[in-house]
Amino acid sequence: xxxxxxxLYSYASxxxxxxxxxxxxxxxxxxxHFSMRFERRMKKLLREQRRSPQANxxxxxxxxxxxxxxxxxxxxxxxxxxxxxFRERVIKVVVQVFHELTDYRFTSHEATNTLFSVAEIGxxxxxxxxTHEEFMDGHAYAxxxxxxxxxxxxxxxxxxxxxxxxxxxxxxxxxxxxxDLHGNPAYNNxxxxxxxxxxxxxxxVYTLFSNLSLEELKEVASSIK
Amino acid sequence: xxxxxxxIESDADRSKFETIYTEYKNLMFYIANRILSDNKDSxxxxxxxxxxxxxxxxxxxxxxxxxxxxxxxxxxxxxxxxLYRKRKRRTxxxxxxxxxxxxxxxxxxxxxxxxSVANAIAMLPTTYRELLLLKYDVGLSEKEIAEVLSITEAxxxxxxxxxxxxxxxxxxxxxxxx
Lengths: 225, 178
Prior knowledge:
The complex is a heterodimer of chains A (about 220) and B (about 180).
Chain A: H1 5-20, H2 36-49, H3 53-80, H4 83-87, E1 91-97, E2 101-108, E3 129-136, E4 139-145, E5 151-158, E6 164-170, E7 175-181, E8 184-191, E9 194-200, E10 204-210, H5 214-223
Antiparallel strand pairs in A: 1-2, 2-6, 3-4, 4-5, 5-10, 7-8, 8-9, 9-10
Chain B: H1 11-36, H2 39-55, H3 66-88, H4 105-109, H5 117-122, H6 126-138, H7 142-149, H8 153-177
Helix pairs in contact in B: 1-2, 1-3, 2-3, 3-6, 6-8, 7-8
């Protein structure tokens, strides 16, 4: 028997319903408690998709520019520097500042022997307690809060060899500063009463986000090992 | 390595994507885990499947409908089977004719007449069923199917021809049995 397109168009929806009837209905599907890792990845994905179309266009153009810059950067430095010099800093950062946002891309081209661990915070402002934490697969997150609604959250992301980590901050009409932290540049952005400090060491990128004063947040950042 | 995420352009598509996420994430996990029997791998597959859904979000008209349910199930099923194959490295039978996640006839007998064309399509080997449904039910072009399933357009065309042939054989056999 020759099966024509007409036959297939006629029966495809019935076949689909039949096939789907062998899968459980929504209320019959066992509720799966997704892991923190999955929830985090999906939250990030949804957050990225919620940006405005205008921001998305800028980001797309930014990514293209960053890709070209990074390739040029790696080629230039690979050729010009000795292996020892190249190892001085495992993570490289490219910062692109735009009118509405700033794109930070951290890349690593060297394997590191550093074991990933939770960041130790030497200074926690008085009255603040840890209310939430996550730790898995090169990602650590901790949220500290007090009864007055003040908070700070610390994220530590490991950047593995050949990998990259991207952070995009909404920096439109915000106050932007750079300062030195543990010998590396730290980037600070203040907007709507919230501060972000972004910095890195030889294998990880750290982000502090808080409604504390910048001075206090810097103190927290400086105390992190 | 640069793996850039496709960004959804319109608010309507964004809302559609979020509805699909809340509506189908459990089902997608269930399908993946039925094939892989591994929670972590299944979650990774579900995440990858959502990245794929973003790629074709503009082709999805309604988030909550059987057609979309079928589409997300096929996407996650295909990704899970690909991973399953990588694990097993099976070479004994043709991938096209592999019977992974295919309902048995008893399941289908309970819901419909066994000897219908629809039943025969539903019981085809997984790859054949997926391709026929994506083309004739979801309405994707062969080029779009190739993108969704990460195979070549030529392969899609060839496999659809094989699926039709196989379906014809099954219907002939059913007719002979009667």
